Amino acid sequence: MGEVYKAIDTRLGRSVAIKTLQGKHGDRFEREARAIAALNHPHICQLYDIGSDYLVMEFLAGQTVREQLDHGPFTPDMAIRCGRQIAEALEKAVDEFGVRLILTTGDNIYRNGDEDDDWYFTYYQPYRYVINRVPTYPTIGNHDAGETESRDDREQLIDNFYVTERIAGEEAAGRASIDPGLFYRFRYSYDVEFICIDTSKEQEVFKNRFFDHPKHQEFLKSALPTATAGQSPTWRIPFCHHPPFCAGPDHHNTKEMSDLVKRFEQAGVRLVLSGHQHQFQHSRANNIDYLVTGGAGKVSTGTPNKFAEAHTKSWAAFYHFLLVTVDGKRMTVRAIGQLSNDGKLVDIARKAPDKTAVTEEIKINLP
User: Fold this and answer.
1) Dihedrals phi, psi of 107, to nearest 5 degrees
2) Considering the entire predicted model, what is its pTM?
3) Which end of the chain is more exposed for a tag (fewer CB within 10 A), N or C?
4) In CATH, which of 3.60.21.10, 3.30.300.30, 3.40.50.150, 3.90.930.1 is domain 62-365?
5) What is the pLDDT of residues 84-123, one digit of tens each?
């Protein structure tokens, strides 16, 4: 969308960063300026001036995440530091946009999650000012289950997210189905229902992914009924770890989910959230938007290689989280990036499969 230059403010004798606009992206440029001006935080750069095709901002020395990754993968200390910056950006978004709840898409504690210390340094400590006032609803990833690591990770997740206390009691009412796996649903207001689907597997427990287990079929049937006119809730939003559609490069379409995709279509689902691939990806298939959001704690910088099979609309290899706003029959989704070297808390730069810039917000409208 633009280029950033270092310059000197001759009036005040200070270094500044000037971001210039390239191409026809005026609306996004104006949104970026408003977002920067609205936020005041030590990890967010200051906006000094704005013109029709430029922003003058505080200059912050350093490298971009992509430049750092060119020299090799992050060390654990570097990854923790990035996680803390993401946490502070999320905290600011919670403050400024009135975030009501947080969903995770699995791999909640990446690499290790089987000790309390792992949870303290990568979850409780960095996110403490968010999780003490905003409820968090988890789903299980392959690194939380025996599919990739030990089952201790899953049991730590159940313990640290208080799954037994918060969710297990909903089984009797048909709003949860637990062990093996973690399935539950909950409403936020009259119009929105979120549905957690466990896509993990543990060979010693069940040979297929847990959504195929006989115990959970009644739950899935009731959570994803055939759509009818005037049904409630208006929005049914499944969230899971493995993506039904993904262009790679590390993971691709989860073929075992084809029957689930049919359920989504029959139930009138319009948005599905997932993780697994450490990028942002947006696919659209049969009138459903599928968002892969796996870039909170790790980023894969490779270029996806199966855009057509995944029905990809846009993608980006940046640290991020999603900000989803529902207003009646209209939904908007923004992918908010990690604070970069110039300190912005703004939408990440997305690309279409043909490499052209994608600047518009993701908008989903019900009939």
Assistant:
1) 50, 55
2) 0.77
3) C
4) 3.60.21.10
5) 667 777 887 787 788 999 999 998 876 554 566 677 777 8
